[in-house]
Amino acid sequence: MILKIILPVLLSGIFNLAFSGSMHLVKVKATNKQQRSKIANVAHLETINSKFVTAIVNDHDLKVLKKKFGSKLKIEDSFAVHQHKGKKRPGGGGDEYEFPKGDEKFHTYDEVIADLKNLAEKNKKNVKSFIIGKSIEGRDLMGVKITAGGFSKESKKPAMMLIGTHHAREHLSTEIPLMLAEYFVKKIKTDSAFKSMMENRVVYIVPLLNPDGALHDIQGKKYKMWRKNRRKNKGTDRIGVDLNRNYSYRWGQGGSSKSPGSDVYMGTKPFSEPETKAVKKFIEEHSNIKTMISFHTFSELILYPWGGTYDPVGGQEEKVFKKMATTMAKWNGYKPQQSSDLYVATGDTCDWAFAEHNIFCFTFELTPSSMWSGGFYPGAKVIDSTFKDNIKPVSYLLKYTDDVYKVLK
Ligand code: 0X9
Ligand code: ZN
Fold first, then answer.
1. Which atom from ligand 1 is nearest to the alpha carbon of 351?
2. 3-state SS assignment for residue 289
3. Closest ligand 1 atom to 244 CA
4. Range of the domain at 21
5. Which of 19, 50, 81 is the last residue of a domain?
6. Could you tell me the pTM of the whole model?
7. What is the Å distance from ligand 2's center to 158 Cα?
8. Which residues are catalytic?
9. DSSP 8-state class, residue 379
10. Which residue's alpha carbon is nearest to atom 12 within ligand 1?
11. Which of 9, 147, 218, 235 has its CA 20 to 30 A from that of 224?
12. How far is the CA of 296 from the centre of ligand 2 (A)?
């Protein structure tokens, strides 16, 4: 009942009402992680409690959910969503790609690129921009590297990598790494202790891994709840691959779908997508990367591997993950937990980074804590506070990037 009243208010204005498809808010009974994982094989879950999960699902995922969980499922509401069919040019594309009124503080793709270039241009000693590859629609996937004391010994300096926005609608996850880039550069110039630490560190920041999806999500200044990239899947008009199901470790072994129409579509093979392929290549070429954060929204969680199995990573590594996650969580107030405690999902960034490269990788699910406090669209008012909440956690990870096992001493 409460949902019925609150949701239309929460979501009105989010979607463009020119009808060409729908999103549905559903509630499915599930009392433990095993039951949740079964639902996560079909659709992406938004909120979770001990009795049920809620999900905002597309038409395709609703159909499958109904078939599998009919008696346990309740549709709370449905919303029309306009899908733009027009061909998109690489580049930000002018007025058409601006955030809805009130949310202009969020950065569009063009603004992200301009900020990164500007940061590098104005701080040549400490910052360089780089391109890890191109998106499926041909946009540059740009990042910045930040260090002190010059780049000649870059490959020998322990590095932390930050990646934002695997998922299109999670726009806050672009803002936070972008702001952190600016913060670290300023801190090198103003804090001598930080500067001397940064002489033996590099930070690689790619704030917007899924520019096509993010632009699609704001096209026409209306949010569309888009999650995936903009791959035109072969033999169907269903668009997109879930980039956080497309990494190779345990790919396709749970919590992802083989159906191109699903919001958790895994793709045709591991690293089928140029965006994930670009991350793979970059990390393979930078063996100095020891720690990593993949920023997502929402739920206020700090997640660590494994996400693809209920097994813990075990050994000293598990102790490090737990110690780091609980320490960071004290500062931002998020909940630290193993990824699969939420639900099993295979093919995510952190499982792959840890399994293949021994990188201590965390998934941060940023603000807000729930759908009822804004979900994917909490508004620009949360940008500054979320940034402040996360400075200490991320700085701590950076500090221990030279030897993560030090946190156990
Ligand atoms: O489902 C995801 O990809 C992440 N949540 S989100 O709402 N941002 O989509 C969580 C990934 C955590 N990893 C696993 N559970 N494997
Ligand atoms: Zn996400």
1. 16
2. strand
3. 3
4. 2-81
5. 81
6. 0.94
7. 27
8. 365
9. -
10. 339
11. 235
12. 4
Tokens representing 161? Answer: 């990598």
Task: Kindly state the tokens that stand for 253.
Answer: 């072994």
The verdict on the CB of residue 56 being under 6 Å from ligand 1 is: no
Of the candidates 213, 303, 306, 229, the residue with the CA atom closest to the CA atom of residue 264: 229
Query: Do 44 and 113 belong together in one domain?
Result: no
Question: Of 4-18, 149-163, 205-219, which gets the smallest average pLDDT?
Answer: 4-18
* Domain endpoint, select from 81, 111, 142: 81
pLDDT digits (tens, 9 = 90+) for 356-373: 999 999 999 999 998 889
User: For residues 129 and 121, what is the distance between their CA atoms, to the nearest angstrom?
Assistant: 9
Question: Rg of the Cα trace of the chain?
Answer: 20
Is there a single domain that holds both residue 276 and residue 330? yes
Query: Does some domain include residue 135?
Result: yes
Ligand 1 atom with minimal separation from the 345 CA: 16
Q: Are residues 264 and 306 in the same domain?
A: yes
| Burial of 292 (C-beta count, 10 Å sphere; 0-12/13-18/19+) | buried
Do 34 and 138 lie in one domain? The reply is: no
Between CA 382 and CA 175 the distance in angstroms is: 10
Same domain, 69 and 152: no
In sequence order, what are the beta bridge partners of 360? Answer: 291
Q: Measured in angstroms, how far is the CA atom of residue 105 from the centroid of ligand 2?
A: 20
Average the pLDDT over 381-391 and give the result: 98
